[in-house]
Amino acid sequence: MQKRFLFWDNPRDAVLTIVPLLMLLGAVNVFSASFVVAEAMFGSGYHYLGRYVGYGLLGLIGVYFVGWKVNYHKVLGHGQKLFFLMFFLLLAVDLFGKAAKGAQRWLVFGGFSFQPSEFVKLAVIILGARYLGNLMERKTTPHLFKLNVNMAFMEAAVLAVMVLVQPDMGTASIIMGLMIVLYIIAGLPIKEVIVLLGGCFLFAIAAIIKAPYRLNRVLIWLNPWADPQGNGYQAVQSFVSIGSGGWFGNSFGMGTGKFFFLPEAHTDFAFAIFCQEWGFLGAVGLIVMFLILAMAIFRIGQSTTSKEGFLLVAGLNFLIVGQAFANMAMVCGILPVIGVPLSFISYGGTSLLATLGAVGLVVAIYNDEVKLAKKRAASNEIPSWNNIRRPFRPGRWNK
């Protein structure tokens, strides 16, 4: 197996070190960003921190269970069942879901709310890895215009449309984006990639034009200062929070954005509060941690012999780290506001559980490859793990 990764013995240990550190930073940031609104709404400034810690501990137990007790091949084998489960959960949201802030995205059980669309992201990766991995095993090139080799894409599109009508265009875009990435890695012809991206762009334009609030969101993204006290208020306050942090930040708890200036300070815009209290250098440190995490997961995928596992790790990397960078770009104004969480740092129980579930699958893939390498080495099939390492190259398996 991979012997060293930077300061760690292997990339799995790097993942298992960085994720808890990110969660510790997340817990600190969630408390700092939320205690004012939590005190006003629930009479306890620790309300959101307690829920974050509860979901986090449950998720870490899940990482252990999935990483060391679950055979990820069996998880992949349930891809179609996951599709139907997600379909009926999203249907239940449409019929019985809780509406809040103009959107109906949650199912409520007792005192807990649950957002199925966060798990749809994970299910789509599992579905795509299983389906496209089998195509790669058969040395079959995926095509968008052949029904017998684009089933995973069509199923992802169905789920994305169901999320879109909630409405949640940001999550729907991520769902389709994850599947598109898997198809490209699996060897989708370049002409079809261009057609696909062009079609997605046109569809996005149509969806934006059809819904005035989406069009307004894009216009505000282009120039939030045109209406700083109205529609551009959130974006402007985000910039103010980030800029006021300076090089070293305002110290823990001293950021002013959370005092009802910045909406969604502990959820989608948690990164703005982080920048305000930790400064530019703290933000750079957080970005570096995510980059190291991405590299560690990349190394695990690079050394994976299973085509399904290879695709699964790639998709999970985009979910865990890619989504984090999308959030930071959104908060900084590089992307329009699309409502994606910052992995481990933003408050959101369902999102945290789904992300930690993804981490558990990454660990399971690594552990499975270690067992396989030891078994082959014991039977003298190969002299060492290094002989079965395969580099990460999109479309490589089709050659």
Topology, number of strands: 3
Low-confidence stretches: none
- So what's the oligomer here? single chain
Number of helices: 13
Pattern of helices and strands: HHHHEEEHHHHHHHHH
Biggest sheet character: 3 strands, antiparallel
Structure notes:
The chain is mainly alpha-helical and 399 residues long. It has one domain (11-398). Helices cover 66% and strands 3% of the residues. The protein has helices at residues 11-42, 47-69, 72-77, 79-96, 116-137, 151-164, 169-185, 190-210, 212-222, 233-244, 270-302, 307-331, 349-378, and strands spanning 98-100, 103-109, 112-114. It has a 3-stranded antiparallel beta sheet, with helices on one face. A hairpin with a 2-residue loop joins strand 2 and strand 3 (112-114). Helix 5 packs parallel to helix 13, helix 7 packs antiparallel against helix 12 and helix 8 (190-210) packs across helix 9 (212-222). The protein is globular. The protein starts with 10 loop residues before the first helix and ends in a 21-residue tail after the last helix. The mean pLDDT is 87.
Features:
single chain, 399 residues, mainly alpha, 3-stranded antiparallel sheet, 3 strands
Q: Quick gist of this model?
A:
It is built from 13 helices and 3 strands, in the order ααααβββααααααααα. It has 399 residues and is mainly alpha-helical. A hairpin with a 2-residue loop joins strand 2 and strand 3.
Helix/strand layout:
Elements: H1 11-42, H2 47-69, H3 72-77, H4 79-96, E1 98-100, E2 103-109, E3 112-114, H5 116-137, H6 151-164, H7 169-185, H8 190-210, H9 212-222, H10 233-244, H11 270-302, H12 307-331, H13 349-378
Antiparallel strand pairs: 1-2, 2-3
